[in-house]
Design goal:
- It is elongated, with a radius of gyration of 30 Å.
- The protein is mainly α.
- The protein is built from 14 helices and 3 strands.
- It has a 3-stranded mixed sheet with strand order 1-2-3.
Length: 327
């Protein structure tokens, strides 16, 4: 009986050693799911009395094998997420441009012969010319009612001195002057591909979450992801503040909105597509980040409002902000 038990133990240890080799080979081939299943099988064998001679070896080997697998899966997920975040500004810009086109269609009204129907201000009013190019015509149909009224009220033009508009109006009043950049930018093919296809290819992130979950360490990955998300978010806010100081609000805000829209689009889309990890993409967490971003926008706008040089820049920023709010 003793010899039989020794033989059975030797066979069990040999089979277990074969699994250890298979784990190493799977990791070398980046076969992460297979490596995970083999590690789980090895863990289950720890309670088998026949492999007791390998108990000390397993205590050393298992943590190392787990860490190698987790590192490989996390690195692949990090590369995927970072790849999207590197294109964050383009993703956000694409979405904002699409939103501007949608609002153009939604608010479409008849704009004929450079006439703004809602305000009743025609292209030639009391001898003053209103210039509407094609993009201005399209934009005029989607402006907020306050912006349309501001343009349409003829007395602003007739009493330009009261509003300090002399240097801005000159002989004519060009609506192009304050059209937000997102209303006139063309569609970007790379951005469209990112939004329509790449954002949905979340296999690396899903795999990492699944492996961490199966090995009982999913909260470690959650903490890692939150740390990286906080870092990139903080960087967005700092860059906005720096750009506002060096370039002024008119140039800083559209870029800030591109990155902000891209950031939240990535988080929301991944949260909607990944099941079982709602706490990582919880609405409360994203809402907290959104409030922080809006607080920064408010503070910087109040501080740097003095950099605005014309009423048209103020209207441009207002329309950019409204566009972001409608996303």
């Amino acid at each position: 009986d003793h010899a039989k038990r020794l033989l059975e133990s030797a066979i069990a240890c040999k089979e277990l050693s074969g699994r250890l080799i298979e784990v190493r080979q799977s990791l070398e081939r980046d076969q992460h799911y297979q490596a995970m299943r083999l590690i789980q099988a090895v863990q289950a064998e720890q309670t088998n009395p026949l492999v007791r001679p390998m108990a000390r070896q397993l205590q050393t080997w298992l943590p190392i094998a787990k860490n190698k697998l987790l590192y490989a899966a996390r690195s692949e997920a990090d590369a995927f997420v970072q790849g999207l975040r590197d294109k964050m500004s383009l993703i956000g810009n694409t979405l904002l441009v699409r939103q501007s086109r949608a609002s153009l269609q939604y608010y479409h009204t008849s704009v004929m012969n450079a006439t703004l129907t809602e305000g009743g201000f025609e292209g030639n009013y009391m001898g003053r010319e209103l210039t509407l190019t094609q993009s201005a015509r399209e934009y005029a149909t989607s402006m907020s009612s306050s912006a349309r009224a501001t343009i349409a009220l003829g007395y602003i033009l007739l009493n330009a001195g009261s509003f300090r508009l002399h240097q801005h109006i000159g002989k004519g009043f060009n609506v192009e002057t304050f059209i937000p950049i997102h209303f006139i930018l063309p569609h970007n093919r790379e951005g469209a591909e990112l939004v329509d296809y790449k954002l949905g290819e979340i296999a690396p992130l899903h795999k990492a979450l699944h492996i961490y979950d199966e090995l009982g360490l999913v909260h470690n990955f959650h903490d890692h992801y939150r740390h990286d998300r906080r870092d990139i978010f903080t960087k967005i806010l700092k860059v906005f503040e720096r750009n506002a100081n060096s370039l002024g609000l008119v140039r800083a805000i559209p870029k800030f909105f591109d990155e902000l829209t891209g950031f939240f689009a990535i988080e929301c889309i991944m949260g909607n597509m990944i099941d079982g990890h709602r706490e990582l993409f919880a609405a409360s967490e994203l809402e907290s980040l959104w409030i922080e971003a809006m607080t920064k926008l408010r503070d910087v706008t109040l501080l740097m409002g003095i950099t605005l040089t014309s009423p048209f820049e103020l209207l441009q920023l207002k329309e950019e902000m409204l566009l972001l709010m409608h996303m």
